Every structure is written in structure tokens, then in C-alpha cells.
Amino acid sequence: MASPCSPASSISSAGSTRSDDHNRPQTLDDLITHFVAAKRSLNTQTVLWRANAIVNTARDLLEENAVLAAKNTSIRNIVDQQVDALEAVRRGIDVIEAEVTVEFKQLLHDVDTSFTGLNATLATLRDTPIEAVLQPPGTPQKHLYDFIDSAAVSNLEGTLRACIDRYNEAHATLDDSTDAFDTSLDNLHSSIENVPLTPASASNPSPIPSLYQHLEAHVKEAAQAFQSLVQHFDLCVTALRHTEGGSAAAAAAEVTGDAVSHSGGEFAAPPEPMSDHERQEMVAVLVKDAHEVDDVVSEIRERDSEMTVLLHHIENHINHLRNEASALSSIRQMISQITGQVKSHIATSRSYHASWLDDTRPTLLNGIEEWENQRDFYERFDLAYAELLVEISSRRRRHEKAKRKAEDAQKELNRLHAEDERARDQFALAQGDFLPLDIWPGLRDPPRQYEVRAVTTEPGAEVDPLEEHSQDDGGIVKSIPQLGRNVVERALTRVKRRM
């Protein structure tokens, strides 16, 4: 159109197909037709009203976009920090559990090792019989195991089993707590992953400002296009006023209702003077612009469609932000619930650790030490019995040596006594007749006799070392038992092996 805001497409549409209209004179009917078309084109004003409403809505959404984008970003940062804190707590619980579990398994291995060693020693005691010569006749066969306090081993075993049961209960409680914690964290991570991510980032910022700028540009262009339609309508009014019968015909056209009145009583005022040349130029411009009216109207309606699409994109983006905000709000509620449960998880972990430090660990260590002490004691007991057999053999050997010495001494004393008797008899026979009896009262006494006898620990009691003696129960035993050679050799082997 003649206005500077006319679209190039409108200008190009006034091509050769319409060149005849430019050349032929315009009749009153032609001007009336242009007037009615121009007036009908002004109905596009409703598009401008809707465009204004769209821009106002978009402006509000632009503000909401800024608020929601900032809020969502802030909440995401807070969520990331809180999730990191929760994960740190969970890792801390894992560290405590891992440290305790490693030490518990090691102590349990040490307990098993100690118990296995003790059982091996006890098995040796069970398999080591007491030599029959050491027991009264008729006594049932006994073994070294019969002389130990087996209840101490059983009681300690029961204590350690109860301790391990308590540990397992505490660990099961911790497992239940950590499983619940893991489930909460898994649900939280799943919810975070399902939070709708608004398609905007540092590299791809929010499209709303750009869309809003496009909206404003469309509104501005539509307003300028509508202004050209208004100017064309005013030109039509002016042309009719300067055409004979034009004002009446235009008024009649308005009365028929073909268009909404926009002239505002322009036909009532007398027209300003205009020369024929000026009128011809005016009509030429009018005819040229008339051919572009439909294109301008189409352009305005197309811009209306474009603005509707742009607003739809803006609303979609805002809906994304709203959905993201709603989901993030739910995430914060989940974090709040999990945070409230964390105190319980930490308390369970502390209870588990305290139980380990105050009960399980010291009990296992004491059990290991006691079992090692028992094993050492019973090994010493077994060694002592082997050494006892060696000692009995040694005592028997020394006893027999002393017995032989005593027999030899007794023989020598008996020989000396007999020799003394013979010497005295010979002296008495040779000199007895010549010596009075009162010269020495002991002249005719027999020689003193000496006897080698075994002495018991009881005062005044004597035992013949060559004979057996009786016990109170009537049984008769050797003073020192006689052990078989193979028994002594086995005992010596055990003693040498453990030295």
C-alpha cells in the first residue's frame, strides 16, 4: 500500500493482472466497492485486541518464567547438596560396618583356630589312657580327659556362641536399617531422574525471552499493517467525498450494514477543495492500495496465527517449568522424610558399633585368650603325664639300684658279722682259759649285728625294701610301679617332641 509499512508481497501482488484497473477511470461504483472492502478490512482490529491480550499474557509468563527458572535451579542445587549429604551418611554407615565386619571375621577365624587347637588337645587327652599299674586293681580304665574340668570348656563355648548370636542380631538390625535407607535413596534417585527437565540450560537458555521478542515484533508489524488499512480507508472516504454522489452512496453503504462504521461522520463535513490532478493522483494511489488490502489482511491474520503458535510454545515451556517445580517440591518432601529417618539409621549404626566395642569384641578376645590358656594348660598336663611316666621309670631304676646296693651292703654286713663271730670264737678258744671274765664285761658278748632297712615317711615305721606292702584297701602294689619299656619310650618321645 502507499504507506511505508506496506509488505513487499502486497506490492508484488499488484502486478500485470491488475494493470488494466490502474489505467481505466474509476467509477463511483468502483470507489464504493473499494470503500466497502476497506471498511471490511478494518474488522481485523479484533486481531489487534487479541494480539494485545496475547502479549499481556506472554509478559506475565515471561515474569513467571524468570521466577520459576531461578527457583527450580536453586531447588536443584539444594537437592544435590542434600542428596550428597545423605549419601555421605550412608557411606559413613558402610565404613563402620565394613571395619567391624573385617575385624569380626578375623576374630571369628582366631576363635575357630583356638577352638580347633583346644579340641585337638582334648582329643589327645581322650586318647591317652592312664597306665593300669598306676591305678588300684579293679579300677575302670581312665584317660587323662577324665581328670579335667570339661564344664569350663563347654561353658566358654556357650558364652561365645551367645555372644556371636547377639552380634548377628545386631548386624541383622543394622541390615534392616541400611536396606530401608537404600530403598529410600533408590526411590529418591528414581524420583529425581523422573523430574521433567525443562529444555533449557546454560548452552540452551530459556526460549521465552526470544519468543516474547518475536511476539512483540509480530504485534508491531500487525499494528503497522492495520494502520495502513486505516489510512487506505481514510483515502477511500476522501475520494468519495470528492466524487459527485459519493457521500450519499457511502452513507447508503453504511446503512446496509455491509461494514462497521469507521468514518465517524466524515461524510457530514464538507470536503476540502482539491484539483482534478490531485484527485486523479489520489484515486491512483487508492486503486493501487486497494489491490493490496487482501494481502495486508492476510498478513495480519497470519501474524495472528504466528502469535498464537508462539504463545503456545511459551505456555508449553511454562508448563514444563511448573511441572518441574511441582516434581522438585515432591523431591524436597521426600528428602525431608528421609532426613527424619536418618536419625534412626545413625542411632542403629551407633548401637551396632557400641555393641561391637563393649560386648562382642572383648568377649571374643577374652574367649580366644582363655581357650589358648586352656589349651596350653592341657598340653602341659599331657606333657606332665608323659614326664610322670618317665619319672616313674627313673624312680624305679633308682629304686632297683638302691635295692641292689642295699642287698650288697646287707651281704657285706652279714659277712663282717660272721667273720667277727669266727674271730671272737677263735680268740675265746685260744685265750679264754687264761682270761678271767671280770677283766672286761664284754669279753663274752656276741658281735653287734647291722641290718639295712627301708624307711617310710611315717615316723617309726619301717618297710623291707625287698618286699611288697599293703594299702588300707587290702590291695598289694609295688612301692614303685614297673612300667613297660614301650610305655616309657612313647613317653620319652612325647617329652622330646614338646621340648
Automatic annotation (TrEMBL):
<dbReference type="GO" id="GO:0034045">
    <property type="term" value="C:phagophore assembly site membrane"/>
</dbReference>
<dbReference type="InterPro" id="IPR007240">
    <property type="entry name" value="Atg17"/>
</dbReference>
<protein>
    <recommendedName>
        <fullName>Autophagy-related protein 17</fullName>
    </recommendedName>
</protein>
<feature type="coiled-coil region">
    <location>
        <begin position="389"/>
        <end position="426"/>
    </location>
</feature>
<dbReference type="GO" id="GO:0030295">
    <property type="term" value="F:protein kinase activator activity"/>
</dbReference>
<feature type="region of interest" description="Disordered">
    <location>
        <begin position="1"/>
        <end position="25"/>
    </location>
</feature>
<dbReference type="GO" id="GO:0000422">
    <property type="term" value="P:autophagy of mitochondrion"/>
</dbReference>
<comment type="similarity">
    <text>Belongs to the ATG17 family.</text>
</comment>
<dbReference type="InterPro" id="IPR045326">
    <property type="entry name" value="ATG17-like_dom"/>
</dbReference>
<keyword id="KW-0472">Membrane</keyword>
<feature type="domain" description="Autophagy protein ATG17-like">
    <location>
        <begin position="41"/>
        <end position="435"/>
    </location>
</feature>
<keyword id="KW-0072">Autophagy</keyword>
<feature type="compositionally biased region" description="Low complexity">
    <location>
        <begin position="1"/>
        <end position="17"/>
    </location>
</feature>
<keyword id="KW-0175">Coiled coil</keyword>
<keyword id="KW-0963">Cytoplasm</keyword>
<dbReference type="GO" id="GO:0000045">
    <property type="term" value="P:autophagosome assembly"/>
</dbReference>
<dbReference type="GO" id="GO:0034727">
    <property type="term" value="P:piecemeal microautophagy of the nucleus"/>
</dbReference>
<feature type="region of interest" description="Disordered">
    <location>
        <begin position="457"/>
        <end position="478"/>
    </location>
</feature>
<dbReference type="GO" id="GO:0060090">
    <property type="term" value="F:molecular adaptor activity"/>
</dbReference>
<comment type="function">
    <text>Autophagy-specific protein that functions in response to autophagy-inducing signals as a scaffold to recruit other ATG proteins to organize preautophagosomal structure (PAS) formation. Modulates the timing and magnitude of the autophagy response, such as the size of the sequestering vesicles. Plays particularly a role in pexophagy and nucleophagy.</text>
</comment>
<dbReference type="Pfam" id="PF04108">
    <property type="entry name" value="ATG17_like"/>
</dbReference>
<dbReference type="GO" id="GO:1990316">
    <property type="term" value="C:Atg1/ULK1 kinase complex"/>
</dbReference>
